[in-house]
Each structure stands twice: as structure tokens, then as C-alpha cells.
Specification:
This protein is mainly beta. It has no helices and seven strands.
Length: 127
């Protein structure tokens, strides 16, 4: 499975970078969540599910991003045979990160040592 950053918003993976840290969910025919997986930094995952079954695969959309592939309802319906490898993709258009200035810490003064005399009194010894 590949999760790609659809930079041009055309709904196709044109060699665009992957999106890591996205949760992908697999539901069985009874609409019961079977498993979830999180994409690697390169936007890929490999998930094993029982063969001979139908699944609906969907992503958990992250804030600020719009799903561009697959088109609504935004899920993949797949049937997996034992040992079969199914390659599916999800595409999203997300805002580009913007640079922001990091504020400098405020200037603070460094304490300096000053010598001060402390008067002491002499106490006579007790006999």
C-alpha cells in the first residue's frame, strides 16, 4: 500500500513523495475493524490479513489535507486470496509547510559576584 502526497492535486501518483504517519484501516464484510497500520516515513505499509475475504480499506484523514484518490467515498473495496499481494494507493493534497521565524530568547543578565564584608563579633569563651 502506498500513501502519496498529491502535490499537483490530480489524483494520480506521478512519482510524488510518500506521506508517513498516516493510519490505514481494514474492515471486513461485516464492517468490523480487522486491523490498522501506520505508513512508514516513505508512505508505504505491508499488512497481512486473512485470505479468502473481502475488505474495505480506508485512511484516517489528517487535518488540513484533502483526499484526492480514491474518489468518494474514498475507500478501496478489495478481495484478498491467500498469499495474494494487493497494491492500493491513497493520495492527499496537504498544505506545504511554511517557514516561521523562531523567536530569540530574551536577553538576561548574568549575575556577577561582588565582595561584601560581613561583620562578625568575637564571642568570649565560656569557662
Amino acid at each position: 500500500m502506498t500513501k502519496f502526497w498529491d502535490l499537483n492535486g490530480n489524483g494520480q501518483n506521478d512519482g510524488e513523495p510518500g506521506l508517513g504517519g498516516w493510519t490505514i484501516q481494514f474492515y471486513n464484510a461485516a464492517n468490523t475493524l480487522v486491523t490498522t497500520a501506520v505508513t512508514s516515513p516513505s508512505g508505504t505499509i505491508c499488512v497481512g490479513v486473512p485470505g479468502g475475504a473481502a475488505y474495505t480499506v480506508q485512511e484516517v484523514l489528517q487535518g488540513g489535507c484533502v483526499q484526492t484518490y480514491p474518489t468518494p467515498p474514498g475507500t478501496h473495496a478489495i478481495f484478498v486470496e491467500c498469499g495474494q499481494l494487493v497494491n492500493i494507493q491513497f493520495g492527499n493534497r496537504c498544505p506545504l509547510p511554511t517557514a516561521s521565524a523562531t523567536p530569540s530568547p530574551p536577553r538576561t543578565s548574568t549575575p556577577t559576584r561582588t565582595r561584601t564584608r560581613t561583620p562578625t563579633s568575637i564571642v568570649p569563651p565560656i569557662d
